[in-house]
Amino acid sequence: MKPRVLVTVLVCLLSVLSAVQAGEGEAASWMARADSAFAAFDARLAANYYLKAYRLDSTSYTAAWKAARSIIDLGELSTDRDRRAKLFRKALQLARRAVQLNPQGEKGYLYVSIALGRVALDSGPRERVRLSKEVKEAVDRALALDPNDDAAWHVLGRWHRKLATLSWVEKKFANLFLGGVPKEASLDSAVACFQKAIALNPQSVRHYVQLGITYQKMGQRDKALAAFQKALTLPRTDLDDPELKELARDRIKKLR
């Protein structure tokens, strides 16, 4: 290669490298802003900033799963069913991208399971049952990679409760898609999962509220009351804690 051509090639390579490094630096800056917004419970700003970071560095596993997490939060805040469904599907796309980027990363599978669960909530009974299989596969993978993730135990607890309390119509679809209601699914298993989540993260309002709801379904009034009352004593650590505490208060009133 002629010296002049070699110099030109080297200059081009250095320019590309500089651009990549600048993009990564800018992405890191947006990630820091996003983390601050998330800590301040500003879901809209956090989602916006995580997406900016991801668009600057689409190979970032962390940006992908954190964007999925905040978009799920946005979906939960939305009262528009169509917009909510669109947000949850976008979150699912990003979570699956995170899995693709890092197949050994637990968070990608976790947010795949959560996004699938949210999509299922707005679906008909046939689709809900079909998606339950994918939820279970994703959360099992998450727990295999990190058995100490309280959020994954929470998801598994909700899976057990839902599958253990299927409607007659849903059971028909379970026979079609799952070969019947999974024998492992039970309210006792749901309780065990929520208790495991609490042991790992005793400050989570969400875990206690869902434990209380499960006890209610089991007809265990006193245990349900204790779980709901405990939820009310905890500090805010998640975006939807105020709404969850309001739900706990409403359940307490109905139980008394």
Provide structural commentary.
Helix 1 (3-39) packs antiparallel against helix 2 (43-56), helix 3 (61-77) packs antiparallel against helix 4 and helix 10 packs parallel to helix 12. The protein is mostly helical and 256 residues long. It has a domain at 38-146: Tetratricopeptide repeat domain (Serine Threonine Protein Phosphatase 5, Tetratricopeptide repeat, Alpha Horseshoe), CATH 1.25.40. The relative contact order is 0.07. The protein is 80% helix and 0% strand. The longest helix has 37 residues, at 3-39.
Q: How is the secondary structure organized here?
A:
Layout: H1 3-39, H2 43-56, H3 61-77, H4 81-101, H5 106-121, H6 125-145, H7 150-164, H8 168-177, H9 187-200, H10 205-217, H11 221-233, H12 241-255
Helix pairs in contact: 1-2, 2-3, 3-4, 3-5, 4-5, 5-6, 6-7, 6-8, 7-9, 9-10, 10-11, 10-12, 11-12
